[in-house]
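Annotated sample (chain length 300).
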Amino acid sequence: MIIDCHGHLGNILYPGGGELIFKMGVKKRFGIDFAAFSEWRLHAAMSDAVLGLLPKQITRGQRARNETATLQNMRRSMDKAGVDKMVCLPVPPHVTFDDLRRAAEIDPGVIPFTGVDFTGDDDIQAVLRADVAAGARGLKLHPVIQKEPLDSKRTLAAVEAFAVHDLPVLFHAGVFSYYLGAEASRNQVTSYGEIHYARNLVAAFPKVDFIVGHAGLFLVDDVTAMLKGYSNVYVDVTIQSPATIRKLIEVFGPERVLYGSDWPWGNHIPAIKAVRKACKGDRTLENLIFFENAARLLKV
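Output written by the structure step:
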């Protein structure tokens, strides 16, 4: 069995993005997809270095992928790759837990997480309690798109309210630009993906399990340096190479490394190949990363 612990449904970049989930026949618009080259290389260092020189082109390609995040396309990708379940992460107010709950009612392969709408004034404790009762298996924080630091008072209050449910908190980690042109300064704060914010959050809640999204993207060395001493830290290996995955296994231990694809921003099959190459034929290790660690953490 394979559980993808990091995926998306809906357009996470704009209000009303949940409507995309239920559309049919959506195809990716034409354009050069530079990230596909990195996937072909299983995100090896050389391709990552090249991609780092093309930030705007990468953003355009990733945005085109984001626009394909329908339930129909997700199911096709999962079936092709042999993925059984996928954690689907909201980014309120664009895509909400209610959007993902509706998707899970249609497709039991969806594992919905809840999130916090920092633009509203809802009773966070009551909202999170209701969402967990309705099936949420974790909390997602996206400091870059939500423009809220991981160690802000509002974030700390949200995590404290969620801590009673004994479920994991997954946060985006890593500097990445999701918007272009004038939108780049209005709709994101890329520096909030830096790892020192994550370290402050993790240190504040030693009894909460945290999943470091993407293992920090290009800041994976900061993740291993700053977070290796925390026993409540897990990492998902979305968009990481086999060599980096092996390093993460060494630093955090095989019980705290999780398979993820970041679908549709990433693809299932290259991510699976990267994990298998990292495991070098060790089926016990593969089972931990593909399924057992996530099943234990998410209580599924």
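Annotation: The beta strands are 3-7, 85-88, 110-112, 114-115, 139-141, 169-172, 210-213, 233-236, 257-258.
Annotation: The mean pLDDT is 96.
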